[in-house]
Amino acid sequence: GAVVSQHPSRVICKSGTSVKIECRSLDFQATTMFWYRQFPKQSLMLMATSNEGSKATYEQGVEKDKFLINHASLTLSTLTVTSAHPEDSSFYICSARSGVGTDTQYFGPGTRLTVL
Amino acid sequence: QKEVEQNSGPLSVPEGAIASLNCTYSDRGSQSFFWYRQYSGKSPELIMSIYSNGDKEDGRFTAQLNKASQYVSLLIRDSQPSDSATYLCAPLSGGSYIPTFGRGTSLIVHP
User: Which of B43, B98, B104 shows the shortest C-beta gap to A93?
Assistant: First the structure.
């Protein structure tokens, strides 16, 4: 299956700082990438959908100025949590889809963010 | 509002038994259906996809789809303790190509 990586896997930061999370498709070109957030014992919550070279589409209730998404190439998307606060602590997961003959999306391993 | 309903469980089955996981969805436009497995603290991994009514088998896993009833299920034969995880159902709308995830069913396979 297709491989998606995320970096870092775990990050701890102070309140007010910004954190960047990278998502890479390693063996395919991802025309679409998704960013999810998951709180403990809850389901995946889609935050935004990004297509290469265009602005991300954010889900209702997700602040686009706080969660900056850039999908600059077909293999890389980044999520920046700006001015992070403790309530932003969560498990952030990206997924990628090639969009070429498939509608399957593959998940990265996730990034656990803890804001102190 | 697209909804996906799954029994949160936990569903507890003995080792070697068949585990049956069910999912209903509200969007009649859904064309593709995916089952993901998520271990605690990890991200989801794809188990199976199904597109047509009927059964689809892959090893110990069988997905069943009934679009008329808006129902999709996953059967796990010869359940193993390593199958203990949360199973997420994700129908995908043909229009948006964005899947909607259920809350997942927690499966516990005890020795």
Answer: B43
